[in-house]
Amino acid sequence: MRIQKQNNLYQLTFMPRLFPVNCYLIEENDGLTLVDAALASSTSSILSAARTIGKPITKIVLTHAHSDHIGALDSLKNALPNAEVMLSQMESDILQNGTKMEAGHPIKGGYPKNIKTKPDRFLSEGDFVGSLEVISAPGHSPGMLALFDHRDGALLVGDAFQLRGGIAVSGDLRWQFPFPAWATWSKEISIQSAKKLADLKPKTLAVGHGDLLHEPLLPMKQAILRAEKGAKKHA
Question: What is the pTM of this model?
Fold first, then answer.
């Protein structure tokens, strides 16, 4: 596991050279918020990172419920029984019900079937989790959330953008790393969410797959233009 720190944000990257999977620890005065739960094998490394920082994980927020963002949830909840688990109601419903379609689009990506942990709270646009404002960002999945830290402008977007293989809006294929595009529910809705996220003018972009990107606004806008051109070409 690799750890990179930016202000209040710690990026934890698993398999950084092969298939990078990120989760994040966000430091608050009274503890840590874990954003996403990475892979089933990630539990001990996440807990070790929190011990190194020296604060307890008190909250677990899931941007969406694909396997590479929720894999360690059950074992983390067993280790941290008092941690509050949060995600959108739509992602929870898809996870629990095995939904195949939403708004006329087939739901893609791997939703694990054996997650036992139940959410303590459903999150919606405009809610806050500590310093993080919740932003609805569907597209890659129907109920995906992003999180904006107003203290320093860090924007955690789940898979709304990828940076591995080149910056891209979810659904805009990058052959160097095609997996987020293959797992995208609606490219058109992804583009609308990407525009909304760019309007926040973030100072740091934190994605599910790829390194941190500083001063990301121009690259985000360029990625949106490319995705729009691709959508028109295939319309």
Answer: 0.96
